[in-house]
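Re: your question from the hallway

Yes, I did run it. Sequences:
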Amino acid sequence: MTIAVVDYGVGNLFSIYNALEHIEAGPELVTEPEELTGFDGVVVPGVGSFGRCMRQLSRFEASILESLEGGTPILGICVGMQVLFDKSEESPEEGLGWISGDVIRLPDSVLVPQMGWNTLSIKKEVEILEGISDQDFFYFVHSYFCVPKDRSVLAATTDYGTEIAAAVSRENLFALQFHPEKSGQKGLKILDNFVRLTRC
Amino acid sequence: MLARRIIPCLDCDLAVPQGRVVKGIEFKQIRYAGVPWELATRYYREGADEIVFLDITASSDRRETMKSVIRDTAKNVFVPLAVGGGIKTVEDVRGIFKAGADKVTVNTTALKRPDIIGEIAEEYGSQACVVAIDAKRRDDPGRDRISVPTSKGESWFECSFYGGREFSGVDAIAWAMKAEALGAGEILLTSMDRDGTYDGFDLPLTDAVCKRVRIPVIASGGCGNAEHIYEVFSKTGASAALAASIFHYGEWGVDEVKRYLAERGIHVRV
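Structure:
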């Protein structure tokens, strides 16, 4: 029972590692693509710019895709969600394109980044959001947001100047714009839901 | 809708093994409040939206103590942790993130070497770089100052550094705007005139900064009760309010403050 946290050299993985350890998910930091085998689930974190994340993540692309196609649950968080899409207004680098759609900048009508706690509007019943309601708050920090072409992937949205994709899911691929590892007990609940999915 | 944040601040004296939380009045008259990780855990359970640790000993030999404070806290606290005080280099910043912090706050070093803001933002993202400004009101408006109407007439605000011991001559409002341009993700704005006084936030100062930047501003200094937080949220664009004494000495729980605000129509996470 182990969860891989892909350590591809951006930002700060301590928080997600610590939260997974707290819920006894057996996290392991994986620094080399060839080591990404035999895990029950894979977490792809991400901070900083889209372009920097993509450049650093590219060497892991094939091995994460292999896990995904093998049915392993994959969870992208924050910029780790955005890189799943085709491209971003933030950087010229192409995204992974596993979910079709673009990543665009938050509207000028609001302070950027969105930084703080916001509620969800749940769009579909998915296991990863089990026990979560529209009244619960989650911690967001981002300047760009994902616009999926196929709205059926939207599991939850949040309202920040416009409708923002907060959670997407498609089969064994999951992604969150907010930080579950920094969202108190409800965030830990979502991580726990993800870990339970990996046991199926 | 995004909630206004309530942030307990723990000023830490790291001269003892686990560190200790202290609180002064107008940056002086220090009083002991508790063990950092224990207080942080209590505030987390009460619903704190974020926790700020400031190392007020701020000398290099205390760094390891701060890292152990962060590590002990991060085991139990699952909201963002911001850490500041005595950060001089990006290497210091790396050590703090490695211990489990999510954001760093820089003050003196940023005033002396503004490039550090961009360096932190490049490596960890803007959201991880908070510029802390300790602002002192000056009632003698000079040239090239951004003047603000206050109870004393027209005033400007000067940035202090070295933990309030020295003054930089820099205009605090202009500095906030420059910090944003350099890549800061947030401004932690402390009124030195109000800090520890329980007289309420400096509303003209907070309002003046909020109107000039497009990044979140954390209002700080002077909070004596929940009414003061209501006031700063209803009269200024502050995204968050930071308080220390009212939480440390048991006058208010974080949960009580939030209920008070929610009952008066302020959108908070409850």
